[in-house]
Design a protein that fits this description.
The structure is a homodimer.
Chain A lengths: L2 H4 L10 H15 L9 H11 L4 H4 E3 L3 H10 L3 E4 L2 H6 L2 H6 L4 E3 L4 H10 L3 H10 L5 E5 L3 H13 L7 E4 L7 H9 L6 E4 L6 H15 L6
Parallel strand pairs in A: 2-3, 2-4, 4-5, 5-6
Antiparallel strand pairs in A: 1-6
Helix pairs in contact in A: 2-3, 3-12, 5-12, 8-9, 9-10, 10-11
Chain lengths: 222, 222
């Protein structure tokens, strides 16, 4: 390997890389004149850490008490349902299991697939309905499908027996994505965390769940 | 639901959302005065589609012939190895299987975990070594761990028996990420696609693999 290039690598132990990364993020936020609310900073910092995109310092919005609602739900053993297997894959399932929760996903559920096919709607939307029918307090983490957020809004408007403990509304994209998030931000009785605008993703959805998990477990990692 | 907000949703069938999204991306690139090379456009467009981040129009760089190398490898049945289960999860495994390839990941391989623990290095780095030891032509898709790229560079410099068919180097982050990508961009005899700078991610790695898959299968989806 060329000594010149190799010489530019910082010597940081695997376990220290995250700490060092967060120091850099804090410093750059300071340089940009952005000071985060300490209550919501863990979520915003982790979204930036996952994307290297400082837009998340501005576009992540929280309903009053959303952080606390998410953390308390996780502490009480709530499970998390995602709209993609990719978001499910990114969640720290060990930390979630320690609190008694699971990462659920119904996108490949045969009933969900059949119903989506018959109705000509997305599997993500039907998967939300399936999750709601469990009648358990859940955190809904949506990183991909705006239709999942529209479905959640419709279910809530019709009166869900067990409303979401928290909605993480961070689908990414160009068609109906921004609008679907606005539908969630209109909710007054369900806590939400939303990435306003087009940006988001399965990685961001998982990062937000993990940030809440680390607050809920006092940042004790295995 | 408030009729006002619902009225803002565009009526697009699930199967047409991607087409409409790509039209919007093309139009916005035009407005920004960016015209893409048709050869590499499928990868760049899909990275933007996955992140809603137009930076990928500028930061995605390709070694000469990298697109063709990736597409030909996939057509010949090459498998793809990722550094995270999240990237593995995002790959269209059905399209990959139709061409004869698999999405591999060794991050939870007991031997890999043991060796990483003993040597105090990342599992991602050891996982690359394990993949290289298979002696099969592979596409290495790295969306998270700069150490995986450093490891690949070292293996190549030592003379891999079966060099990578393509390296997709798109880890995200703040510590050694930019430098690890420069190490890959110095390679002259191994094709690479790199997201220069800090940005990237498991979602971007999967999106690039999928873009290559769709070119390789003439965009026929099931």
């Amino acid at each position: 390997m060329s000594a010149t290039t190799l010489g530019t690598l910082e010597h940081v132990k695997p376990g220290d890389i995250e700490t060092r990364s967060f120091e850099i993020i804090v410093e750059e936020l300071r340089q940009r004149g952005i000071s985060l609310d300490p209550a919501t900073a863990p979520v915003i910092m982790r979204a930036i850490h996952t994307t290297a995109d400082f837009d998340y310092a501005e576009n992540l919005l929280f309903s009053p008490g959303a952080m606390q609602a998410g953390v308390e739900a996780l502490k009480a053993g709530a499970s998390v349902v995602t709209d993609t297997t990719m978001a499910q894959s990114g969640i720290n399932k060990r930390a979630l299991a320690r609190l008694g929760g699971e990462a659920l996903n119904f996108i490949r559920d045969p009933e969900v697939m059949q119903e989506a096919h018959e109705k000509g709607i997305t599997r993500s939307a039907v998967a939300m309905e399936k999750a709601a029918s469990l009648g358990r307090p859940l955190i809904y983490a949506v990183g991909n499908a705006p239709t999942a957020l529209v479905q959640l809004r419709e279910l809530i408007d019709k009166g869900m027996a067990t409303p979401p403990a928290l909605i993480i509304g961070v689908p990414v994209g160009f068609v109906n994505v921004t609008e679907s998030k606005e539908l969630i931000m209109e909710l007054e009785n369900v806590p939400w965390i939303v990435a306003r605008g087009r940006k988001g993703g399965s990685n961001v959805a998982a990062a937000i769940v993990n940030a809440l998990l680390y607050v809920a477990t006092d940042n004790v990692r295995e």
